[in-house]
Design goal:
Blueprint lengths: L2 E5 L8 E2 H4 L9 E4 L7 E2 L1 E4 L13 E6 L8 H13 L4 E5 L9 H10 L3 E4 L5 H35 L4 H11 L3 E5 L5 E6 L26 E5 L2 E8 L11 E7 L7 H38 L6 H10 L8 E8 L12 H14 L6 E5 L2 E7 L6 H16 L9 E5 L9 H19 L4 E3 L5 H5 L5 H12 L8 H15 L4 H8 L3 H15 L6 H17 L2
Parallel strand pairs: 5-6, 6-7, 7-8, 17-18
Antiparallel strand pairs: 1-11, 2-4, 3-8, 9-10, 9-13, 11-12, 12-13, 14-16, 14-17, 15-16
Helix pairs in contact: 2-3, 4-5, 4-6, 5-6, 8-9, 12-16, 14-15
Amino acid sequence: MHRQLSPVSTPAPSGVSLAEVLELPVLEGTSVLAGRDGLDGLVSSVNVMEVPDVLPWVRPRELLLTTGYPLQSHDAEDLIAWVNGLADAGVGGVGIKLARYVEELPAAALAEADRRGLPVLALPAEVSFDDVINQVLTRVINQRADTLARAEQVLQDLVGVVIAGGDLDQVCQGVVRHLARAALVTTMDGRVLASAGELPEDLGTLPGFDPTGRFLVETELPGMSSEFSGTHRFVARIPGGGAGGGVDLGRLVLLREDPFTAEDNHVVGQATTAAALAITKQQAVAAVEGKYRGDFLLDALLGRAGDPERVASHAADLGWDLRRPMAVVVAEAEAPDDDDPVARTLPERFRAAWERAVGADDELTAVAGFSQEVVVLLGVPAELDPAGVTEKVRAMAGVVHGRGGGGRRTFATGISRTITDLADLPRAYAEARKAVQVGRRLHGERAVTHFDALGVFRLLSQVEDRAELASFIAETLGPLADDTSEEAEDLRTTLTVLLDNNLNVALTARALHFHYNSLRYRIGKLERLLGPFTTDPRLRFAIMLALQARQLDSP
């Protein structure tokens, strides 16, 4: 895919194109001697060349006016160097009154102006430099006033939308009316919050978006106009409040057929102001509502919100259906880095991501966030078994990890048994939290674990005296409990596979890729260390339990 990047600087330079300047009445009869390719360049001021050595005083986007007098002492090489100096300085063009002192410019100098794209104009002999200066500056000032008026109108329109109760989608619609074919607002982790205009159903097909539809905030630079196969895109910061602008609230992404110009920056700035206002308003309302809803749900989870009927009735007022079979889902995120400037917004983004992921399936599901923990009271159809519930929650967790916008945070998820009575809600909450803790230890930071899948780990996790449990592991496994010995680790692996295969030597040898006799030798060594576990079922059970306990307590 073809891509070109060009900066659109801030603050934006003002000016009009040289082609527009040539349409002014005062320049009627002017001809272009060279540099026609540069007529689209901007002119924002006018200067008159009165001395040959003018280069130290010229400025970018300046129309330089001169007679032939300062040039009459220049030979062809001097004029070529002069042209290059003006082009290097970013001069918008040079207009020359010929005939009186210099009848024509050398062909080599004009050829160099063509090569550098520096417009060289032949002015009519009777033109007044004062008139040119007045008309050009009047045109520049009028355009600047038009741009500022347009920006002010956009700001009034978009802020009016927010004040009237409009949301981000309506702000995007306003941006499309004024500025672009399509507009999107994303969070700082790339999740699309709102959009309007002509967009494909699959955002992953757009440049700058990954296959999940997430905008690549970390690689797509704000303040840059990009061109992709005929579509121009501009990315702008949506600044937060506070001293120094605070933390960015997101990105405004604009798409259209025409290139974005420097003048558009004034309007884009007003659009991002309106978007920031809408996001801040949305966050404030969500924070108040979320605090109230969260406090109520926490009371219900801890059994202090009143009788089940009162809880169900109040939940219905909040838009939640708790009069059905449910499972409690707890998603516990890793604690953010205190030095992370966006750490304070992560819990709310984490909760909102789960709310969106769950709401796509069932809008009546209760969701609340408590610091680094999100709790979901998930409705469970009668035909769904624990494995089915686990897969459903795993899919939701996958959405939150990906395009759901959970801040790309690592979190583990626990699921309780299904309950049919709200009086059992505190027990189910405890089960889900236990599933999170044990699941994280057994399967890692992204584990999704159902309480019923914990098996014997449910009992082991209830042992409060961890020293007693460690003593049992050491006494039962003996030398095999050593965490620092590679030989002990190797023998533990052999023992675990052997027990998993119900002492079947042939199956174990194939699983471990051992020769049958080699495995027999290892089994003999294990029995010398642990005792006759192949013939003593009680000892075998104790060893299996110790291995499980060791796995639970492993760091």
